[in-house]
């Protein structure tokens, strides 16, 4: 394994560890929220998300190891910036949501939707961050097929996930009056 492959493998493993930590943190938040009367929605989508993320990480490494490609420096740098932007968006979303951040779609009836921090600008910064990560991380290692397949699968999953999440928020909070005028993903682009 050359030094670049080693560094890329370490990066992918670090992301895998990050995802495991997030699962634990989410479970802790979920238990607390349920104890406060929160409701879980679209539970069936969670398994698909786990399969997608585990498959994405595994496929990224397998493709990078089995089909090593020289990635042009400019492409690698653009992908690294996109990946860092994705990580930043996700961190900002988790920070703004605080103990209400979960991987599952959880709503606390009667509580307003979060409209602070990054949510002042976007309705779904976490999902935008995930989109950037799923595309960019494999590209850094030359796993272009994984980047494309994972991005398409994520797009299909998000099509259903966002609808379920927004429906749950409309039902249990003043979602439309709080965030309805914010763009879903791109600042300056209407919902």
Question: How would you describe this structure to a colleague?
Answer:
The longest helix has 33 residues, at 3-35. By secondary structure, the chain is mainly alpha-helical. The chain has a single domain, classed as Four Helix Bundle (Hemerythrin (Met), subunit A) (Up-down Bundle), CATH 1.20.120.1630. Helix 2 (44-66) packs antiparallel against helix 5 (144-172), helix 3 packs antiparallel against helix 4 (125-140) and helix 4 packs antiparallel against helix 5 (144-172). The chain is built from six helices and two strands; from the N terminus they run H-E-H-H-E-H-H-H. It has a two-stranded antiparallel ribbon with strand order 1-2.
């Amino acid at each position: 394994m050359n030094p670049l492959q080693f560094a890329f493998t370490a990066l992918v493993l670090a992301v895998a560890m990050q995802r495991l930590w997030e699962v634990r943190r989410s479970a802790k938040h979920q238990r607390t929220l349920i104890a406060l009367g929160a409701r879980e929605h679209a539970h069936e989508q969670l398994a698909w998300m786990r399969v997608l993320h585990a498959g994405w990480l595994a496929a990224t490494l397998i493709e990078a190891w089995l089909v090593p490609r020289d990635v042009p420096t400019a492409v690698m740098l653009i992908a690294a910036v996109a990946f860092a932007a994705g990580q930043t968006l996700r961190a900002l979303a988790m920070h703004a949501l605080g103990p209400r951040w979960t991987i599952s779609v959880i709503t606390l009836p009667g509580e307003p939707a979060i409209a602070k921090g990054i949510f002042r600008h976007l309705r779904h910064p976490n999902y935008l961050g995930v989109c950037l990560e799923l595309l960019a991380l494999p590209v850094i290692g030359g796993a272009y097929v994984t980047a494309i397949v994972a991005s398409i699968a994520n797009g299909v999953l998000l099509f259903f996930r966002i609808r379920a999440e927004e429906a749950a928020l409309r039902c249990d909070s003043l979602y439309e009056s709080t965030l309805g005028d914010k763009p879903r993903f791109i600042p300056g682009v209407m919902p």
